[in-house]
# Entry
Amino acid sequence: MTQRMPTPTNYIMIDFENVQPKNIELLRQHPFEVFVFVGENQSKVSFDLAEAMQALGEKGRYIKISGNGPNALDFHIAYYIGQLAAANPEGYFHIVSKDQGFDPLIRHLRNQKIKAMREKDLAEIPLLRISNAVSKDEKVELIVSNLCGRGHSKPRKVTTLANTIDSLFTKSLGEEESMGLVKELEKRNHITIDRENVLYRLSST
# Structure
C-alpha cells in the first residue's frame, strides 16, 4: 500500500490595509492558518470578520503592526513568512493583497524554494478553487494546470499520479475517482500510459 504524504499547511497572510475580505468562512474546512495584518492606525474590524476569525480558533490570528510607514506592513509579513518557512519548509504561503510591491518578495521566496504567491482575493487561492470544482471538466482543467506547474517533477507512475490527484483535491476523492480521472486524462490525450508508466503530452492542451 502506497503511503500518502500529509497535506502541506497553507498560510494565508492578509494585508488588511489593502484588502478587507468578506469570505474568510471559506477557509474553515481546509488546512489553512490565517494571519490578518492590521495597520497601526486601523482601530476597527467588522463583526463578520471577527466572527469568522473566531470560528477558526487557533488557526486564526491578528497581527497588529508597529509603525505606519509605506512598507511597514509588508516588512511584518516578510518577517512572519521567514519564521514560518524556517519551521515548516513544505508550507505554502499566500499573500492576499492588491499591492504589487509584494511581487519581488514572492520571486525571492520562490528562488529560495519557498512556495509563495499573491492573490487579490481569497477566492483566487488554488486550493479553494479546487475544492469548489464540481464537474469533470473543471477537475481535469485544474489537474492539468497543476501538472504543468510541476516542471520535471511530475508523477511518473500511474499509482503515484492517482495519489497526487487525490492529494490535490485534499484527499476527498478516493481511489476509484482518482483512477477515473487518470483515465480521463488519458482519454483527452493529456497523458499516455505505457504499462504503469505515465508519459505527458500537456503541451497539446
